[in-house]
């Protein structure tokens, strides 16, 4: 059995109120761009988000029209800031003595790429053993943490002495575009920055938050064009369709049914941890699965306090959920480009 012993998170120091970001976005519009101003206001006020964090200390300076940061500028910023947040999350998660026992490190990010990468920078900064096995999960989108956890689970099941450290860092705000098309208005309104570390092993003598159960995956090719994440000269470009909530709503019940059939879990006893990709997605899931909002509160509260931090968001949800008194089985799911749906079952200890 694989255990998640600890989850710890880290956030940039700079926090923005959603209403302030809306004012900034609208300040970049021309006087005649009435539709865009109305759309920005509508999306922001219905986003379910109160505050977001960013490594960018002044959005107003960073995105002035005519001074669009190029991809190399954005990747340089990622290299500077991702390591800081990753180290902070790890220091909260694992003691110095246990750090020296780490056998495997897995890094997760879809917002920054380089070689040597984040995993090597973390090993150097944390003075980790040089013989650690390294794995990176890159550019997969908001469901990537599920892959990191799956890989960690497979390592622990195949190696009884494994001690796995997962570090997930997403700096979505460095890819904001000063563009007025619907995709960029939506992305600039939803996404934010954050990091988390997870410590896993199969040692049942170490206090734990969760037992890891089973993993599930489904690819909806009908939604291949509805969510995408592509490179450009000015950063990573997001494609987000209004049909995403409907696509998820159409298949999430089937995915839950498959999980229940495979694991023998009872739906009535499940707790819920969904990636809060947006308030419309959470409402669609709650509607089709007949889950009251209060039973998805960890997802709603994470969205309200931090926005959509891409893949790392689900780890914030699981950490928040771990603090309530309810024990027992958990069904967790996330979504991303493809359109991909990933899910897992856990047992909350």
From TrEMBL:
InterPro entries linked: Chalcone/stilbene_synt_C, Chalcone/stilbene_synt_N, Polyketide_synthase_type-III, Thiolase-like
SUPFAM superfamilies referenced in this protein's UniProt entry, alphabetically: Thiolase-like
Keywords: Transferase
Source organism (scientific name): Flammeovirga aprica JL-4
Record carries keyword Transferase: yes
GO molecular-function term, one example from the UniProt record: acyltransferase activity, transferring groups other than amino-acyl groups
Domain Chalcone/stilbene synthase C-terminal residue range list: 219-347
Family listed: Belongs to the thiolase-like superfamily. Chalcone/stilbene synthases family.
Active site: 142
Superkingdom of origin organism: Bacteria
Chalcone/stilbene synthase N-terminal domain boundaries: 6-203
Lineage: Bacteria, Pseudomonadati, Bacteroidota, Cytophagia, Cytophagales
Name used for this protein in its record: Type III polyketide synthase
Pfam families attached to this UniProt entry: Chal_sti_synt_C, Chal_sti_synt_N
Biological process per Gene Ontology, one example term: polyketide biosynthetic process
């Amino acid at each position: 059995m694989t255990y998640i012993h600890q989850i710890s998170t880290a956030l940039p120091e700079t926090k923005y109120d959603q209403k302030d970001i809306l004012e900034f976005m609208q300040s970049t519009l021309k006087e005649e761009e009435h539709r865009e101003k109305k759309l920005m206001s509508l999306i922001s006020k219905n986003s379910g988000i109160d505050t977001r964090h960013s490594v960018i200390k002044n959005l107003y300076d960073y995105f002035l029209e005519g001074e669009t940061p190029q991809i190399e500028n954005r990747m340089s910023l990622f290299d500077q800031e991702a390591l800081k947040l990753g180290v902070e999350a790890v220091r909260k998660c694992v003691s110095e003595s246990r750090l020296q026992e780490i056998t495997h490190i897995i890094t997760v990010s879809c917002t920054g790429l380089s070689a040597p990468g984040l995993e090597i920078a973390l090993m150097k900064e944390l003075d980790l053993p040089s013989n650690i096995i390294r794995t990176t999960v890159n550019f997969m989108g908001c469901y990537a943490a599920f892959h990191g956890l799956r890989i960690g689970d497979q390592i622990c099941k195949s190696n009884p002495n494994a001690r796995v450290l997962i570090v997930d860092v997403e700096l979505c705000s460095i890819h904001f575009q000063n563009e007025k098309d619907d995709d960029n208005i939506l992305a600039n309104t939803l996404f934010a920055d954050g990091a988390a570390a997870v410590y896993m092993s199969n040692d049942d003598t170490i206090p734990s938050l969760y037992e890891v159960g089973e993993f599930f995956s489904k690819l909806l090719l009908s939604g291949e064009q509805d969510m995408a994440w592509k490179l450009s000269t000015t950063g990573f470009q997001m494609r987000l369709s209004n049909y995403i909530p409907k696509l998820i709503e159409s298949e999430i019940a089937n995915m839950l049914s498959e999980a229940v059939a495979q694991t023998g879990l009872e739906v009535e006893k499940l707790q819920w941890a969904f990636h809060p990709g947006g308030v419309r997605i959470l409402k669609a899931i709650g509607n089709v699965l007949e889950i009251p909002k209060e039973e998805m509160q960890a997802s709603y509260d994470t969205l309200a306090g931090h926005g959509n931090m891409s893949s790392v968001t689900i780890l914030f949800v699981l950490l928040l959920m771990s603090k309530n008194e309810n024990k027992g089985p958990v069904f967790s799911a996330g979504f991303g480009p493809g359109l991909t749906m990933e899910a897992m079952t856990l047992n909350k200890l």
